[in-house]
Fold this protein.
Amino acid sequence: MNRLPLSTSSRTTAGILYGMGAGAIWGLVFLTPALLHGFSPLQLSTGRYTCYGVLALALLAPRWRVVTAALGRREWLGLAGLGLVGNIVYFVLLSSAVQLGGIAITSLVVGFLPVTVTVIGSRDHGAVPLRRLLPSIALCVAGAFCIGWQALLPSGYATGVRALLGLLCAVGALAAWTWYAVSNSRWLARLHDVSAHDWSLLTGVVTGALALALVPFALLGDTAQHASADWLRFGGVSAALALLASITGNAMWNRMSRLLPLTLVGQMILFETLFALVYGFAWEQRLPTPLETLAFVLLVGGVATCVLAHGEAADPVGTER
């Protein structure tokens, strides 16, 4: 059921709030490899997304025929690509990066997401010209360097081959999430008979099926010994991630993607990095260093300047689903 059209300012405000909410939830994902450090990245991914698939299927089951009636082969293949690359592959690479190189260096690389998505989105029809986004991009780049600067220092952080492998995994995660953010936003723009929330649940069902197929490989590759309490914690964290990050977070992200242009969607990813740092400080029971505080200022400034750039541009009034 369609609601009354929203003004440009109302759409932007609502979209930003949804983006902040998704970032606050997704920031918790960075803590998962630390909470479940005894499990492999593939196990973490299959556990989380199998639970995601079960929950998504349960929520869609009463309306399954109605929701899937508008989907063809192309849409199902699109969902499979989003689930594989944007969920499973991304989380495997992110978990590997955190376990190998630490949260700081992972945050550095993933912090470039606003830059990569914004640059790609600037080519879309009707997008804000890239030259008007240069101040925002510059602030984001500076903030991302500040976030991970300490990870590049030799003391107290992973070094050598381990750090290099962590960096490569983080770059892979960056590429996977960039592709997901752009592709998902464009799919939502093309779909008219599927709500943002239902598209998120459909992505979960397909991702769950893919994750379930990978369970044997995750178990066969496990050489560690896990106590019953470890498996209980694994199941609890996986279920919590599925409900919070995958169901709730993705629903908020998809709603935001329909309210904001792709160039501004890219900036909203920044909140994931900010909240990940906040949770990291709480986990380590410390306050941010001056360099980390500067990073907060730069990254928030990047979002603010991007919002201003979009506020100055003419944006047609749309209808929220």
